[in-house]
Amino acid sequence: MALAFLVLPVVAIFARVPPGELLSALGTEAAKDALVVTVKTNLVSMALILAFGTPAAYWIATREPRLRDVVVTLVELPLVLPPAVAGIGLLAAFGRLGLLGGTMDALGIDIAFTQTAVVLAVTFVASPFYVRTAVAAFEAVDPALPAAARTLGAGPGRVFFRVALPLAAGGLGAGAALAFARGIGEFGATIMFAGSLEGRTQTLSLAIYEQFDLDFDVALAISALLVIVSGTVLLSVKLLTRWRSGSTTPIPFAPSTRTSS
Amino acid sequence: MSHRLASLVLALVVTAFAATAASARTTAASPLTIYAAASLTQVFKVLDPAPNYSFAGSNALETQIRNGAPADIFASAAPLNTQRLYKAGIVDKPVTFTANRLALIVPKSNPAGIRSIYDLRSKPVKLVVAAPAVPVGGYTLTVLRRMGLSGVLSKVVSRESDVKAVTGKVALGQADAGFVYVTDARPVSDQVTVVRIPAWAQPRVRYEIAVVSKSPNKAAARAWITMLQSARGQTALENAGFLPVPKPST
């Protein structure tokens, strides 16, 4: 019964509009613009998350346990933060009158209502999903292997790229998929921090919100699209998890403590 | 879905309903539930703090009431939203209870240096408006059209879901300027400066209110609307900067 309760709303999205109308609703200008904005901002966010998150996760995973726990907790904070709080926080930090507003103004950077603001919001809420999974993946790498590489004369950079990274790849992929799923669904922080303008800052989630009382069919169609994307991401996480189950990484949803594997 | 499964899911919904309804019933006589345009937020709360309020864009409230939201009263910033529900038989006959004017607001620091509406045309400005379906968004389009300024719509950086979201973005200094009702500028008068819109460009902003036909508290709802139309209600509205109901003749 609990299962049916969870599945019913998802099924209802598809039941209410026939597939043909769903496709034509997705062809509307608003839906297409929102798709472009979402893909663009999320690709940039993912690149940032991977580029900064991967070394950060490796660094965290190789620290002593107490420091590691503190840092992981800090990283996880945006994960449990209500989206509205994330929006207020971003405004307080990067808003024009925020902490860094004066500095950014002096540098000639004005991100208010730009796609940069969307990218910041998405990166802020999505990166913890990647980093915590990546930390767990790096920790699950048998410490004997990097140690062996080091005794064979490999430098720290070479150990990271040639040993740790390939061994943790499955977990990193799963983490990236989870972060991507969270990123494309981002709503609260974006609408507060970046506003909503079709073709500029209006992502799919914001378009659903605007279309809700304009054209419910378009809102349904975009929702259906997001269900499909989210389902695909979830499936790929499962496959990635199975693929690397040969290694010893814990499942991505398990608490990322050393004892959990 | 099989019949048995459907009934099981319904059982879950009914249990949740019973649990929340039971807790609601313990709180004395049920207060009125009033769905009202966001611009009425402060004045309604001051006038009568007792009802349960839901403030949002009138268009969003219209959709919610159409979908069965448990409102007793609907107060809209445009006759369009109440009239559509009236024609659909969802609310009783609406009455006009107040009026308003538009204004342009800029942050106190005025980063874009906006001193008149026409500055919107010549200066680079991050302009925030409400979405066209929101009453104030529609009124904004009217003002700009009448002033021959529709071109400044290319400077819009965000279309917000209600007037308070526009006010907030300007008061925070995120946006350089935004179109709101004059009544929205008052509560944030320490953060924003009002730029006047000439009277000849002002749209006719009429607020309508109606009792929701399916309301179980119809008598109380009608009494509340009478109170709003009385000297007490009208004085509160006037003190908040709203205008008296315009004469029906045009």
Give the low-confidence spans of chain A: 247-261
What structural category characterises the helix and strand content of chain B? alpha/beta
What's the alpha carbon Rg of chain A, rounded to whole Å? 21 Å
Cα Rg of chain B: 20 Å
**Which architecture of chain A would the CATH scheme give at its second level?**
Orthogonal Bundle
- Fraction in beta strands of chain A: under 5%
Number of helices of chain B: 10
Beta-strand portion of chain B reads: 15-25%
What is the fold named in CATH at topology level of the largest domain in chain B? D-Maltodextrin-Binding Protein, domain 2
The number of E-state strands of chain B comes to 10
Largest sheet of chain B: 5 strands, mixed
Query: Looking at the structure, what is the overall shape of chain B?
Result: globular
Listing every helix as H and every strand as E from the N terminus to the C terminus, the arrangement of chain B reads HEHEHEHEEHEHEHEHEEHH
Structure description:
The complex is a heterodimer of chains A (261) and B (250). Chain A has 261 residues and is mainly alpha-helical. Chain A has a single domain, classed as MetI-like (MetI-like fold). Chain A has twelve helices and no strands. In chain A, helix 9 runs antiparallel to helix 12. Chain A is globular, with a radius of gyration of 21 Å. Chain A starts with a helix and ends in an 18-residue tail after the last helix. The radius of gyration of chain B is 20 Å and the shape is globular. Chain B is built from ten helices and ten strands. In chain B, helix 2 crosses helix 10. With 250 residues, chain B is of the alpha/beta class. In chain B, the strands form two sheets. Chain B has a five-stranded mixed sheet, with helices on both faces. Chain B has a five-stranded mixed sheet with strand order 7-6-8-5-9, sandwiched between helices. Chains A and B meet through helix 1 of A and helix 1, helix 3 and strand 7 of B.
